[in-house]
Amino acid sequence: MKVSWKTVLLWSLPFLVIGFFLWQSFLTPSNNDLNNNVASSRMTYGRFLEYLDMGWVKRVDLYDNGHTAIVEALGPELGNRVQKIRVELPPNAPELITKLRKAQIDIDAHPIKDNNAIWNLLGNVFFPIVFLGGLVLLFRRSGNASGGPGQAMSFGKSKALFQMEAKTGIVFNDVAGVDEAKEEFEEVVTFLKQPDSFTAVGAKIPKGVLLVGPPGTGKTLLAKAIAGEASVPFFSISGSEFVEMFVGVGASRVRDLFKKAKENAPCIVFIDEIDAVGRQRGTGVGGGNDEREQTLNQLLTEMDGFEGNTGVIVIAATNRADILDSALLRPGRFDRQVSVDVPDLNGRLAILKVHTKNKKMASNVSIKTIARRTPGFSGADLANLLNEAAILTVRRQKDAISINEVDASIDRVVAGMEGTPLTNSKSKRLIAYHEVGHAIVGTLLEDHDEVQKVTLIPRGQAKGLTWFIPGDDQSLVSRAQIKARIMGALGGRAAEEVVFGSTEVTTGASNDLQQVTSMARQMVTRFGMSSIGPLSLESEDSNPFLGRGMNSSSEYSDEVAIKIDRQVYQIVSECHEKVLRIIEDNRVVIDRLVDLLIEEETIDGEVLAQIISEYTSIPQKQAYIKLI
């Protein structure tokens, strides 16, 4: 930021003046004569009167309103030479002056230098001037920041970023993995560029498009692409910028935003995180927020009120569509809701191709393999993954990103930073049996995911990890696949029981058991995969305004609850018995794998499958069920 010499002078002038007055007040002594007229000794007032009676006092200088005197005396007690003596005088001694005059002693009074006048001038005149000057300067600076003079008090003005032709550097070709959403917005851009082709057949473009999806899936990136593609004015603002501590400011900013938008129509208004201002009205413990509700009411009116907003297309983004007000979601306001979900395998592949354009990748890196290893990753997660791999490549002093850096980055993103390798032989062997138990059960079960690798390198809170490669589609999962996952999760505990005995099992399977219980309970209460029948006894819905889970009251009787507990126990018990048999039947290959794992610390999935195939046949993995 460039600062002119006038601004520096204006800001420094008050401090220079204040410093001058302080120098005058503090550095200039109030009693210069008293400080310079140093007395050689002190004397009591009574002794001073005796000297006066004896005629030894020659001169008296009074200071401090007559409370202090410097006396020049001459006498035998003083060696017959004149000396200066300091005397503290009592406050009420009117007879002293009379005695001094009768004795014809030279008297001189020195008044105190009065600094109160300076401080009175400073407080009554100078400080108000400086304060008013500072306010004027603040208003002028605020006015310049908001677009012109006179805007310093414009709390109700919109803070939206306005661009006549938004040049974000991002177009639709830079957005991958959300093809359906791109089609919706390509239609919006086409309408803005060629409105006649739509109006000729009586078509109307939606007034509002709501982007809904988890964080990091590319909602804001899509808005930037729209701004880059459309040659129309573009307004962008966050939902939280409408709300202030001042009553009525949010509604005023909404009015000002749409007023500017109508003046530049046709145009696009992008509101990010609209849930900050668009929550349901009248909800929550103790009622709603009046200021936020006023802002929402104004937004509803501007989008589809009495006057309408022809030519203004509102695009909003949120990851909490469940808490938005129903009036905001009705046709005429947000006509369309575009879901931007976590990408599938093909979507991840397209996103990785975009993010690897500016990355130097080694020739042995397969983007498809990375896409297969990252199920559930959003676009932001994939971008972060490749950035971590690039940083690790520089740290290892390599010229290009290899598959080893990518694998290490995936492990770090998913499980955390790498910890210190285990040195205790007993603990290391126990963890090795635990992880091999997971791996061999997952490998020998037909409906389980393939094993990617097994490692004893600690990450996060885990002392060892077994990685699986999920199938392409996770939206539909069969009963056999859920039971296979339950059995795979029980493989670690079962291996501990078979090898070390039931008395030596550890707490390492605590997280596994939580997953097992959760999957088994969902089979019974949500998916209808038990003898109770095809009933959904529990749901994921909860009131977000009362707190997640606060209103999760059971919708079934105590008798049904007992049946649910029995079914969950039966499912887990049956899976546990099958897993114990698998571990016992394959004890030889398990021991071999444990010795290899302790030596190498990491076994790749292909090596694991090859060793297991020498002792038993590995079933062909079935493809996941896909929508037709």
TrEMBL record:
NCBIfam families in UniProt: FtsH_fam
InterPro entries in UniProt: AAA+_ATPase, AAA_lid_3, ATPase_AAA_core, ATPase_AAA_CS, FtsH, P-loop_NTPase, Pept_M41_FtsH_extracell, Peptidase_M41
Record: active site: 435
Assembly mode: Homohexamer.
Gene Ontology annotations for the cellular component aspect, listed alphabetically: chloroplast thylakoid membrane
Sequence positions that bind Zn(2+): 434, 438, 512
Cofactor descriptive note: Binds 1 zinc ion per subunit.
One GO BP: PSII associated light-harvesting complex II catabolic process
Transferase keyword on record: no
Keyword Protease: yes
Keywords, alphabetical: ATP-binding, Chloroplast, Hydrolase, Membrane, Metal-binding, Metalloprotease, Nucleotide-binding, Plastid, Protease, Thylakoid, Transmembrane, Transmembrane helix, Zinc
One GO MF term: metalloendopeptidase activity
Protein name: ATP-dependent zinc metalloprotease FtsH
Membrane topology: Multi-pass membrane protein
Positions that bind ATP: 213-220
AAA+ ATPase domain mapped to chain residues: 205-344
Record family assignment: Belongs to the AAA ATPase family. In the C-terminal section; belongs to the peptidase M41 family.
Top-level taxon of origin: Eukaryota
Source taxonomy: Eukaryota, Rhodophyta, Florideophyceae, Nemaliophycidae, Palmariales
Entry's localization field: Membrane; Plastid, Chloroplast thylakoid membrane
Organism field: Palmaria decipiens
HAMAP family: FtsH
Cofactors demanded by this protein: Zn(2+)
